């Protein structure tokens, strides 16, 4: 037997030992660590509660004066002191929904390509570029939106939509500043979120799934459908929800292209407004307590809507997964 | 070594002490964004000549009033005079010091039309959405020398609350009872038609991007960015373009009806040379100031801006106060008690 080899063997076995022995001794450290992380987790909960409370407190005047009418009126008239949130809620939800409709297929498609189909050399650079989109400040998106995207939509895209689809959803004349343009700009902004997360999700699918599908004679498409997409359902929903969160709260880019007109209209080419925009726009020069308070209530409402959508998504996950198991 | 540490400590201590002393003599203010360029020039020049540092946060008139009410600043600034209710909330009361006047230009983007004239009625009709085409007879009638295209009018207004909106809508309210009941005036109003842009730059962006747009921006902004703007028919029936001179003329025209507390909107002022869409901006000073050091520095600054500061306004396209008004405002400084 070679003694030197033995020695290396010994050290190789011994090396991890001190680590394990520390682990067993470190019951105290474990406890501290657990408490510390729990503290961090509760801190988030505490912050959320405090935010909700502060918003509620700040909106007291408006809640008292407007009551439920705040949620049923579509009038927003600071001069008369009448405040209704409907146009803002509508604008926020519609622009975010449009953004998801555009970005989700693109984002999931990109990440499928990157994990399943793209040549190895291409994967990292493309993923990097897509994720770089997330680092662009939203005001830059907004400026690009007002100087390039909006005129482009007005001159080229909107006339086509009016001509070939038309109906109540695409009615002219278009100024380029619209719910639709806001949806497009938001979709670009949330694309990296959807792409990055769904890529992680697809990558976490064990290779054995793909191999099994292939072994059963599945084509590439069938493999993706059966072995990759199906087990990723929950993860994809998570990706979409995170993206939705960003879209709901986006302020600067939206306010620059949405036209800032508090109006509920089925026309996607019409100007609209959003909850985050109206707060950013009117807060600094809001004169009168009710106005400030109404803006705070919009903030509270935005928080509630985000919460409700999150709950809805969780329920959806719960239902689909239980069906899947059956 | 020890000696050295002690010296460093002493130096740091001395510099800390020095800075805290300087702060004690300094002033803090917050409020309107519209006069920010001239205010920052004033505070800079005043610091250079008198050594008093004045910090000013241009957070908006609403924020300025709020901070003044809470007592977190030494003075506020606003583009709209405070209401009686707002003044009642400030312990001891508030004095309004008009600083400069500014004009709001009605800018437009119609190719080939460079000298548009508008009457108050047409302006209201456009912003009410009643006149929707550039070649509408109502516009054509008063602009016979221009060839007006068959182009849709897009109305652009400010989406953010602003003193500029307050002045503009105040004018519309004065010239049209219909506007007064439909929308009224304020820093944010319910616009009958149009799209909103955030800030002067937002409205200017809309103006440059959408052919056929009409909107309102601060005069200084319109001049610096080479926007085309209209002449408006004033109370005396003259078409007047916005300028520093026509704004001061408007301030002078309004003097006769100026109340003692200077809380007055000077839109639609009389006088042949007066541009009708303009307004004052004010410094808001508490009537009683607890800290005598602050009171002294603040009143010193007030008399400085009324003597030296006013002459700097025109370079930045703000209209200085008319001479006769300056004397009246100076007399109000004595009302600040400390």
What does this structure look like?
The complex is a heterodimer of chains A (326) and B (338). The radius of gyration of chain A is 26 Å and the shape is globular. Chain A is mainly α and 326 residues long. A two-stranded antiparallel ribbon of chain A has the order 1-2. In chain A, α4 (60-66) packs across α14 and α6 packs antiparallel against α11. Chain A has a domain at 90-287: MetI-like (MetI-like fold, Orthogonal Bundle). Mean pLDDT of chain A is 87; it is low at 1-14. Chain A has 14 helices and two strands; from the N terminus they run αααααββααααααααα. Chain B is an alpha/beta fold. Chain B is built from 13 helices and twelve strands. In chain B, β1, α2 (36-50) and β2 (54-57) form a beta-alpha-beta unit. Chain B is elongated. The N and C termini of chain B lie far apart (49 Å). Chains A and B meet through β1, α8 and α13 of A and α3, β7 and α9 of B.
Write the layout of secondary structure elements.
The complex is a heterodimer of chains A (326) and B (338).
Chain A: H1 3-14, H2 16-25, H3 27-58, H4 60-66, H5 69-72, E1 76-77, E2 82-83, H6 86-117, H7 120-132, H8 138-164, H9 179-203, H10 207-215, H11 220-249, H12 252-257, H13 275-282, H14 289-325
Antiparallel strand pairs in A: 1-2
Chain B: H1 2-25, E1 27-31, H2 36-50, E2 54-57, H3 61-70, E3 75-78, H4 84-88, E4 94-108, E5 117-118, H5 120-128, H6 137-142, E6 154-158, H7 163-175, H8 177-182, E7 195-197, H9 199-209, E8 213-218, H10 219-224, E9 228-229, E10 231-233, E11 239-240, H11 244-254, E12 278-286, H12 292-307, H13 323-332
Parallel strand pairs in B: 1-2, 1-3, 5-10, 6-7, 6-8
Antiparallel strand pairs in B: 3-12, 4-8, 4-9, 4-12, 10-11
Concise overview:
Chain A is an all-alpha fold. Helix content of chain A is 77%, strand content 1%. Chain A starts with a helix and ends with a helix.
